[in-house]
Amino acid sequence: MRIGRIGCRLKVWYQRQNNFGAGENMTIGSDGPAEKDIIRDKVRKLYSAYQKGYLGGEKMPEDENPGLDKASKENYMYFTLPMALNYQRNSYVLWECANRLYSEADAGTVFDCQKVCSMPAEQLKEILVKYKVALQPNKQPVIWKTICSTIKDRFDGDIRNLFRDNNYSVWKIKKYIEENKRDFPYLGGNKICNYWLYVMEKYTDVSFTDRENITVAPDTHVIQASARLGIISPEEIKSSDVQLIVVQRWKELLEGTEWVPIDIHTPMWLWSRGKFQVEL
């Protein structure tokens, strides 16, 4: 779907569904604290619907995993490498393929940095493509191997050392990745990096000292849900900077509340994925 069509559809939703009053633009920053309170109330209802299971999500994509020890290097690697290929595809299918790959294809081989780096490129490509973890055969195996090389050379083959070396600070980890973005292809992007850190927090034993610095991961669903809630306007959704706008608005909105931005990511993602059937 083209972004212009999304903008038109969201404009209709915005006017008909949000009930903010005829002709009013209720995006954050328009008229002060009152609007923030209205939007926060909608967020509170959305989060409550999520907690009660009304949005679905009983099984999330990353729940498809081999059940490794949460503290193990293998578990950290399992939730790192496929994440770097998680774009322009169904997340549920990706993780199903990743789990099957881990379970069937000589499990440790392609998730072990040392083994991947010594493996012929064609062999890695054949495995990743066979299990449909890589859908872009000339690009995604290179991404996989590049990240493995980075982890091997800089962190002794153990991604946990990235967190340890940066004192488990989200801000420091993101800064390090941003400064070395070429060594973390795709994983270093604004959207996926934050979501990756959220997944690591949820599925491994890592505990960050400043989790408030994990922002929402502004994918298509989060952007649509943000517009639906009035965080951004239908016009802003067409901006080339929409991801940065969404991140900043959520930071402003949730400051001083019981939530940090990433807490709202999954409720929004599920709400949008369910075509906003749950009314707030």
Produce a short descriptive summary.
The chain has 280 residues and is mainly α.
Question: What can you see in these coordinates?
Answer:
- There is one protein chain.
- By secondary structure, the protein is mainly α.
- The chain has helices at residues 3-17, 33-51, 73-78, 91-104, 113-117, 121-130, 140-155, 160-165, 170-179, 190-203, 220-229, 242-254, 265-273.
- Helix 1 (3-17) packs parallel to helix 11 and helix 11 crosses helix 13 (265-273).
- The longest helix has 19 residues, at 33-51.
- The chain is globular and about 60 Å long.
- The two termini are 26 Å apart.
- 39% of the residues are buried.
Mean pLDDT: 87
Radius of gyration: 20 Å
Q: Which structural class do you get from the secondary structure elements? A: mainly alpha
Any low-confidence stretches, pLDDT <50, length ≥5? 1-26
Number of strands: 0
Shape: globular
User: H/E order of the elements?
Assistant: HHHHHHHHHHHHH
Number of separate helices: 13
Cα distance spanning the termini: 26 Å
Beta-strand portion reads: under 5%
Question: Main β-sheet: number of strands, strand sense, barrel status?
Answer: none
Helix content: 40-55%
How are the secondary structure elements laid out?
Elements (H helix, E strand, L loop, with lengths): L2 H15 L15 H19 L21 H6 L12 H14 L8 H5 L3 H10 L9 H16 L4 H6 L4 H10 L10 H14 L16 H10 L12 H13 L10 H9 L7
Helix pairs in contact: 1-11, 2-13, 6-7, 11-13
